[in-house]
């Protein structure tokens, strides 16, 4: 069975930035419209479900990895956006009567992809801020040690 890392083609120790970069590459390459165009070019019949399958699997793997990396603790606004994107996608599917509204489905999928990208960016910003905070604490400890060295005594709090 393929793991989410296998689906995206990244190693398990890949950073969030590497996962996002690979997802962006696959998202373009596996886009349902692009696959449909390749099928038409090769003289194959159009199959919307088959066109969407690799794109959806990749998007779902990306979302699972982001949730795994963040412990599933997405900010409330990100959870709301993901839910809204899914609602839009579900509505587009219900309205997709014999392919008439395929464009709506593609728009909904685009919204869902943007939400995933936004969540990944928020996670990266949170990690960067957390690392910066730790560095500031280290500088503070170093400053206290320097004070002790220069004065020969501990700085009172």
Which descriptors would you attach to this protein?
mainly alpha, 157 residues, single chain, 77% helix
Write the layout of secondary structure elements.
Elements: H1 4-8, H2 16-29, H3 32-41, H4 48-69, H5 76-95, H6 102-151
Helix pairs in contact: 2-4, 3-4, 4-6, 5-6
Q: Can you describe this structure?
A:
Helix 3 (32-41) runs antiparallel to helix 4 (48-69). By secondary structure, the protein is mostly helical. It has one domain (4-151). Helices cover 77% and strands 0% of the residues. The protein starts with a helix and ends in a 6-residue tail after the last helix. It has six helices and no strands.
The radius of gyration is 23 Å
Shape: elongated
Write down the secondary-structure element order.
HHHHHH
Q: How far apart are the termini?
A: 57 Å
State the secondary-structure class.
mainly alpha
Overall average pLDDT: 75
- How many structurally independent domains? 1
What are the low-pLDDT stretches, counting only 5+ consecutive residues below 50?
Answer: none
Quick description:
By secondary structure, the chain is mostly helical. It contains 6 helices and no strands.
């Amino acid at each position: 069975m393929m793991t989410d890392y296998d689906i995206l083609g990244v190693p398990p120790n890949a950073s969030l930035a590497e996962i996002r970069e690979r997802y962006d590459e696959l998202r373009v390459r596996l886009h349902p419209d692009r696959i449909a165009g390749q099928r038409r070019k090769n003289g194959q019949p159009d199959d919307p479900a088959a066109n969407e399958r690799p794109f959806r699997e990749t998007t779902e793997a990306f979302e699972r990895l982001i949730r795994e990396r963040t412990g599933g603790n997405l900010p409330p606004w990100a959870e709301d956006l993901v839910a809204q994107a899914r609602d839009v996608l579900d509505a587009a599917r219900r309205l997709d009567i014999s392919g008439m509204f395929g464009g709506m489905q593609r728009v909904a999928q685009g919204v869902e992809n943007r939400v995933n990208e936004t969540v990944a960016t928020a996670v990266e910003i949170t990690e960067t801020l957390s690392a910066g905070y730790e560095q500031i604490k280290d500088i503070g400890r170093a400053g206290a040690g320097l004070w002790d060295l220069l004065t020969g005594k501990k700085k009172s709090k």
